[in-house]
Amino acid sequence: MSTALSLSPEILAKYEPVIGLEVHVQLLTETKAFCGCLNRFGSAPNTNICPVCLGLPGALPVLNERAVEFATLAAMALNCRINERSIFARKNYFYPDLPKGYQISQYDKPLAEHGWIEVPTPNGPKRIGITRLHMEEDAGKSLHDGFPDSATRTYVDVNRCGTPLIEIVSEPDIRTPDEAYEYLTRLKEILLYTAVSDCNMEEGSLRCDANVSVRPRGQEKFGTKAEVKNVNSFRFIRAALEYEIERQIEVIESGGRVVQETRLWNANEGRTYSMRSKEQAHDYRYFPEPDLPPLIVTAERQAEIRAQLPELPEARRARMIAQYEITEQDAATLTATREFADQFEAAAKAAKSPKRVANLVQSELTSRLKAKGLELEQSPISMKGIALAADLAEEGKLSSKQLKQLFDIAFETGEDFPVVYEREKPQQISDAGAIEKMIDEVIAANPKQVEQYRGGKKTVAAFFVGQVMKLSKGQANPALLNELVVKKLDA
Ligand code: ADP
Ligand code: ZN
Ligand code: MG
């Protein structure tokens, strides 16, 4: 990512960045937070609406129990403490896509506080604190593009009004754009495991505002922060932070002061622009929502929700490394999504060697997916197919060369491995007599290697296996071949 700025490494090193992230996540409930309207992305504009989500006079909100459950589940997965009693508050502001003139949110008594996420850093794992997780509702959308007259008009779609959200606010514990990237990656992974959201950034179900300041290294007091909004991928957030850190250092180095403001990221230009001076909390005139009672999540209810917590990615990786004797790298690939990890575990349990299943995914599958630009879930070869291939290889019924060929065919035709295997099943020579004949031939042609072997250099056996395999055009049963070569040489 190119930025307009370029300060020397010495000057950059004089400053320490401080970053805190605010993440909004839409909850995957059937209906909205305070009414019975469908909570659905992509409906025809202004169709999923009612007096409550439009804020018509006299309409009263009723809290969606499922939204509370999802928010609590997410909070627990993020190691937060749940407040048994929290308070909804009105956050007042004008926006054309907010017909109510306020948003129902939570303010000084949020649903949950004091959580953390562990992220990997070059100096080992680090905990990033989560200040709070609160519930709120989304606003509608202003549409500026995609219409013939969009140069002169803005359209408003209020379908999104009242969509249940959680806002997750981090402590200012993040010190580098890479840590911010890791934090967001882990956060998304955890939320996907709990299944409370689809975290689809293109559709806006996960949105992030990044707060960043810089301070001279060694100084305790934080510098003035800027908030960067409107960034729609984690990679862009990292780039925006990199840019913003340099911009702030340059301001300070040239004798200026950083002003507290909201800035927008322009991905095409790779820089941020000032949007407006930052509003303060008191500008919103927060007050307790008079139409909703305090939210009570009793200890008993909390226990019920906690019982629904799935095994989370970090714990799952640790267990899988121990259980299947796979590497950390294997585990990271295999737990990329919960569905995939489930499939892997089902396959690994059924297969003769879980380790071999993991290896096939890591080597043969991943490289082919990458070459075709496919995601794991778009793979033509299912985990069941991988398990079958692993078993065939384990039993010596398939040489590694044959396996590679069958995988190539599967990726060309888009068929799963079992289908390809049934049709293309390699002709394998499993007749001991035929293999022995070939071994005799190779032994006769290579007296020097035979001498070496008999002189104690047992590794030469591999040479004979290779030669016979070649002679058989890759069709000798590998397990049988190995056994017979040693038998012949030892005879
Ligand atoms: P505001 O009232 O401006 O919204 P908050 O105190 O609520 O500020 O913090 C919002 C986010 O900004 C949090 O994620 C917090 O960690 C982060 N933050 C607060 N102060 C700083 C700072 N000086 N530099 C960077 N991030 C900060
Ligand atoms: Zn409604
Ligand atoms: Mg704030």
Give me some keywords for this one.
3 domains; 491 residues; Arc Repressor Mutant, subunit A; binds adenosine-5'-diphosphate; 17 helices; 19% strand; alpha+beta; three-stranded antiparallel β-sheet; nine-stranded mixed β-sheet; binds zinc ion
Describe the protein's architecture and organization.
By secondary structure, this protein is α+β, with helices and mostly antiparallel strands. It folds into 3 domains: 9-302, no CATH class; 313-424, no CATH class; 432-490, Arc Repressor Mutant, subunit A (Orthogonal Bundle), CATH 1.10.10.410. It has helices spanning 9-13, 51-54, 65-77, 177-194, 234-253, 299-306, 313-324, 328-334, 338-350, 354-372, 383-394, 400-413, 417-424, 432-445, 447-454, 461-471, 478-490, and strands spanning 15-26, 81-82, 85-86, 88-92, 102-106, 112-119, 126-137, 141-143, 155-157, 164-170, 206-216, 226-231, 261-266, 271-277, 287-288, 295-296. A 9-stranded mixed β-sheet has the order 2-6-7-10-1-11-12-13-14. A 3-stranded antiparallel β-sheet has the order 5-4-15, with no helix packed on it. It has a two-stranded antiparallel ribbon with strand order 3-16. The chain is elongated. The mean pLDDT is 92. Bound molecules: adenosine-5'-diphosphate, zinc ion (ZN) and magnesium ion (MG). The site of adenosine-5'-diphosphate has 15 residues, from strand 1, strand 10 and strand 11.
